[in-house]
Design a protein that fits this description.
Elements (H helix, E strand, L loop, with lengths): L1 H22 L2 H8 L4 H7 L4 H7 L7 E3 L9 H11 L5 E3 L8 H10 L5 E3 L10
Helix pairs in contact: 5-6
């Protein structure tokens, strides 16, 4: 009985989420997502395929501060962010991200042409190449 109730509850959540997607225009949903931080966007990306598309839309990734994740961030993450948000990204803080090196910054420089503010304070693996 409990398993049936749990399955029914999951189905209702999926139906409610789908209803939200149908009732609100994509532009409004993107605007709502634009107020979320990196952690919330990543969590929303796991809800459904439609929310994944919304959460990972480049327009949501204009300002990124990875200081709270400095121990976990590696160069590949920065390269992926650069590829996904390149045209939109204006502000990136990698402050304290000691695993990020020159290769990640090369990809970043090739992809992110609209960057206005870049914080590399205490990024010890980046050289003056």
């Amino acid at each position: 009985m409990k398993n049936s109730q749990n399955h029914h509850g999951q189905r209702n959540r999926v139906e409610e989420e789908a209803l939200i997607n149908l009732k609100l225009p994509k532009e409004l949903l993107l605007r709502i997502f634009s107020f979320l931080d990196v952690t919330a966007l990543c969590r929303c990306a796991q809800v459904s395929s439609s929310w994944n598309i919304l959460a990972l839309d480049g327009s949501n990734w204009q300002r990124i501060d990875l200081f709270n994740f400095q121990r976990d961030i590696e160069g590949a993450v920065v390269e992926n962010i650069a590829r996904r948000s390149g045209g939109f990204l204006k502000k990136l803080s990698l402050r304290g991200c000691q695993s990020v090196g020159d290769n990640a910054m090369k990809t970043f420089s090739q992809q992110c042409h609209n960057i206005e503010d870049l914080n590399l304070d205490k990024c010890t693996r980046i050289t003056d190449m």
